[in-house]
Amino acid sequence: MRDLPVRLLKRLSALEGLTQDALLYLAAAAFAGALALGHGLGDYKAWGNIAGFCYLGGGLLLTAVALRHRRVRLSPRAVSWWRRAVLVALLAGAVVAPLCAELTWRAEAVPGVHAQPEVAVIERAGDRVVNGHSPYPRHPNSVGIAPSSDAHGVDATAFFPYLPGMVGFGVLNALHLPRVLRDARVTLALFTLVIAAAALVGSGESRSRRGRIAQFLIVLPSGALPMVTGGDDLPVLALMLAGLVLAKRRMPLCAGLVLGLASSMKFTSWVLAFLLAFAIRDRDDQRAWLRYGLGVAAMVVPAIAVGVLLQPHAFIENVLRFPLGLTRIKSPAASPLLGQFLVSELPSHKTVITAILLVIGAAVALGMMIRRPPRTPAGAAGATAFIMALATVLAPATRFGYLIYPANLIVWALLLPHRPLGDHAPARARRHLVQGAATLFGALQPPSPRSATRSTTALAAPVTPGVGELRGSTKAPTSQ
């Protein structure tokens, strides 16, 4: 029984991409249907009603195409076209359509809840900044105005548990724009789509791999549901993906700036920002942690300095104590996980339990880093997935929604090329190596064209590909 998940994953990864897509969409349809039928939150139910039929239609369509592919063997181009067409259709049906509906219903004050509380929290922070106030109230005593409210004035009572970089997504709320455009989800969604598209285009991966990453980040319920109902984690995830792509392309300063921007929004990106420093290299295959660190610091330090220097007590109360569940007002983040269970069962020992859980989580992460530090961007993504899954379970104020971080990071770790950075030196490093060897043996001329071609080909040979596209191969199956 213990090997069952491993065997199941191996079987799924051995399936063709077309079949994998069909199974993913059918599973997404079941999840959306469960929300539509059973969940109490109005915005979740509305999303489930719209997206469930879209996922079901996409899954059934690709199932029919996969059955025909078994009989007739469609061309790789035809298979790829069907997969891309369904992906785009689901982006429109499971993301754009329900998002526009929720935005319109909220703008027109239709009865019911049409957004998660974080939307209103971000908007109120934007209100405060535009009106000359700090985003962090001095004496917060609520978790934010109900998102169904149309009151967009300065609110001095709601906690703002984010870092200062998140304020920018709520600024539009204070401007003289149509009400539907002042919703924070407009900027959150647009930012996510633009950054994710740029990262995928610049990744150099196959269309199949880019499509799989886009599925989990945006199209499947792991991305579509938060984008429609809240969305504050998705810009951070998009920037984390972009930072990994830039690190893979050996652009340490740019990777640091991008991950620094993500780290100025939420603490959830700090683990990856730290671990990537162990794996970052430049185009000469030299460690580049200093340039990378300067890029991160250039974005994080000013953002945090502004928040701390203006109102140190308010910053600590909003950003540290409230998310850890150490304030009188409880965070709405709650799920029956270990940390939340212990704090709820022993409320008088909340501070001690929180400290112990933090020490345990830090010790496990540190032990993993000492034994096996990441050597590649993909390795850093995999290590971050494990640490964030552990943190989600142990955090005293947590929710299942935070698992979208390890879910996406695992996909990135599997789909980004997983090879040690020192094993395949770039062209300049190879040239220096050949020249040095020639000098050592007293050669006055470079190697012969035939031998140079053979040695260069050997150095540039790709890692042996795996079976399915959910594995870390460097070449996608030809049928996709």
Q: What does this molecule look like?
A:
The protein has 480 residues and is mainly alpha-helical. Among the domains are: 117-182, no CATH class; 427-460. It contains 19 helices and no strands. It is globular, with a radius of gyration of 24 Å.
Quick summary of this structure?
This protein has 480 residues and is an all-alpha fold.
Spell out the key features of this protein.
globular; mainly alpha
The rounded Rg comes to 24 Å
* SSE topology string: HHHHHHHHHHHHHHHHHHH
The fraction of residues in strands falls at under 5%
Helix share bin: 55-70%
Largest sheet: none
Mean pLDDT: 80
Low-confidence stretches: 419-434, 436-469, 471-480
Total of helices: 19
**What is the first-to-last residue Cα distance?**
32 Å
Return the structural class: mainly alpha
- How would the global form be characterised? globular
List how many beta strands DSSP finds.
0
